[in-house]
From TrEMBL:
Keyword Oxidoreductase (UniProt): no
Keyword field contains Coiled coil: yes
Alphabetized Pfam families for the sequence: PNPOx_N
Organism, as annotated: Streptomyces eurythermus
Name of the protein in question: Pyridoxamine 5'-phosphate oxidase family protein
Keyword vocabulary terms for this entry: Coiled coil
Amino acid sequence: MGRFAHLAYTDSVRRVQEEQGSGLLGVRALAQPDTGPDELGPDEAAFLTTRDGFYLASTGETGWPYIQFRGGPAGFVHVLDERRLAWAEVRGNRQYITTGNLRTDGRVALFFMDYARQARLKLLGRARTQGLDEDPALTERLDQPRTDGKVERLMIVEVEGFNWNCHQHITPRYTEEELETALRPVRARMDALEQENARLRARLAELGEQD
């Protein structure tokens, strides 16, 4: 769990863990030294770059958290390296709450879900926005794939820590593409059976005429 535990398991959290009988969980996690930000590995990169959406939480000047959903084609979140991920921000409802929050507090939490496989990945990081002209090469890199719409800025997140969650309580849900993939062999089998039934009906009709 690395740095994630050192960031998330505060004294108050540890007290609750002790009260609820899961204190050993915190002891084990915090026994790992905080050697710096967690680095994304191949498993994390593969998971992140195949998601078609995630939840993004930030905190405003009033101290209240705010959460938004970011969606797009699979791969619209780009893993730049072991520490950074980024995507193109397109125009939405023009409230700019997340963008405004980041001007005073860049700390964010990201929640990536794979409902079909009942998997989830939580990330803590520091986010910043970047103008489209500041790094033309990066702007071009994040252009495909990206969310449809007018791109207003880039969002770059430097990962501090991450944690894979257990699959408990995740209700399986499927996208149209996932359903199409799963149902393709079923439909092929149904087509074959219908063709076989048609041949059998035709054969029975021939036998009836012969009688």
